[in-house]
Amino acid sequence: MKIFPLGDSALLVNFEQSISPEINRKVTQLQKQIAAAYFPEIEFMIPAFCSLTIGYSKSKTTFSKLKKRVLALKVQQANSEKENPILHKIPVCYAPTYSIDIQEVTNQTNLSKEEIIELHTSQIFQVYMMGFLPGFAYLGSVPKQLFTKRKDIPRKRVEKGSVGLAGLQTGIYPMESPGGWQIIGRTPVEVFDVKKEQPFYFKTGDQVQFYPVSKKEFDNYKK
User: Fold this and answer.
1) Which of 84, 101, 106, 220 gives a 20 to 30 Å CA spacing to 73?
2) From residue 211, how far is each of 16, 37, 89, 158 by CA, in Å?
3) DSSP alpha helices (H): ranges in 38-112?
């Protein structure tokens, strides 16, 4: 675990620079420990694949002081017991109306649509981090057979709820937006709702498993 300054009011905690469930678990465990220990000088924390960004108030602490406090948690963090993450089961309709890039994925992977769906739904994915839109969860890792390149030219408009592939990741668009992921389906689940007290459906460290539904089941899904 290495800590570096990030601007004049944040620090970056780096773990091993690799994408894996074990390293990401260290990130989320450290975030939880800091939250439980109560650091009044901390204003925000942003977990990522293998790092944790911590923003702090310059009127309450300094980089050096906060670094020492975080490092003091290292032993406890290393000995933390593995927690049982929340598993979300998410319905996805892979009908032609929603799987608008399935042919492109087929061309890139040499898999049939049925094989793509089978691989996508047989895997339990981990929420590694949140970004680039509010509520967008980066889920991994996709089976290597499903490795798919992003679009060379992103779409100007991707529908809310679209489920896409990019590299060894999959994710759900929480709202209509531009995007370059290959779209293979759509979910009726609201993964971001600003009207709710807790607007984010997922959080870092959660697990997700998709399951296929028909167009009729999609239309009748109760949100």
Assistant:
1) 84
2) 33, 38, 7, 21
3) 63-71, 74-78, 102-109
Q: How far is Cα 123 from Cα 140, in angstroms, rounded to an integer?
A: 9
- The whole-chain average pLDDT of the chain stands at 92
Please list, in sequence order, all residues whose beta carbon lies within 8 angstroms of the beta carbon of residue 21, skipping any fewer than 6 positions away.
Answer: 126
> Whole-model pTM?
0.83
Is residue 155 a contact partner of residue 178, using CB atoms and an 8 Å limit? Answer: yes
Q: For the chain, give every residue range classified as CATH 3.30.1360.40.
A: 2-78
Query: Alpha-carbon distance 70 to 77, whole Å?
Result: 10
Domain at 87-219, CATH from 2.40.100.10, 3.30.300.30, 2.40.10.240, 3.40.50.2300:
2.40.100.10
Q: What is the mean pLDDT of residues 51-60?
A: 95
